[in-house]
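Notes taken during the Thursday session

The instructor put the following on the board and asked us to keep it in front of us for the whole hour. The protein is ZC12D ribonuclease. We were told not to look anything up and to reason only from what is written here. First, the residues (308 in total):
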Amino acid sequence: HQSKMDFFCKLGYGKQDICRVLENLGQEALEDDVLKELIRMGSKPQAPESQAQPSQLKLVARGSCSTMPGLKWLGEDESDSSSSLRPIVIDGSNVAMSHGNKEVFSCWGIQLAVDWFRERGHTYIKVFVPLWRKEPPRQDSPIADQHILEELEKQSVLVYTPSRKVKGKRVVCYDDRYIVKVAYERDGVIVSNDHYRDLQNENPEWKWFIEQRLLMYSFVSNRFMPPDDPLGRHGPTLSNFLSKKPVLPEKKWQPCPYGKKCTYGNKCKFYHPERQHQAQLSVADELRAKTKVPSALGKEEERCRCSP
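Then, after some discussion, the predicted structure tokens were revealed:
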């Protein structure tokens, strides 16, 4: 009797209705018969208290942009997901040697490049430098401002590519492969004056990516200066090149060199400020329109005279 009471209570039926049915049908009645009798009596199950309270978790469709505020993807920066700017991957050795005139590994050049992208609002910036650059400088490989590397490493901006010594010889991993791979996976921009031709021949996907996402630069009086047209005169601007969603520029009309003396009318491809609120007709069309108006008026007058 108690087991049947618990069973139907879990279904949501009231104890009084269950006791009444069990008294009518007897203690040995089957569960199906009890359920039929409860339905016949008009007893309705009620939702349990645990189900009555609405769940705080919400289902989100797969691929939806809306996410819970407390949830994050592992390994992702919070600001990088919402930023409209592309990730930046800097070839540290190329930038430092370029700033040091190919004679000194100038860490100050790396700092200038990082600061330039930070001022633009980029949140994901990574600089790759070989690990052996942490060693004390030698005469054949001088390093200037080496403390900057430590500061950038503490800020999680600088990444050292692995290297080790085997029997007194240094074994260095290819840092260019790290740079291209991370930029390709992040769909970012590579900052370097190197063309990575060996990696272009190695992977056709990398070849297209390097051709379209390589940002070259120059140093002018300790000023980091990338070009305004990274892909040439007919390519995107620098702001569109560095953003995930490029903005189309507004079409600028060139004023007509003939001004008011222009006789092309609406066929003129240049801009006429005096014709903003006028129907732009050619001279021939305007003459035809003027000749049609008096002829039409004369026909109406003749019709009025002939009509009784």
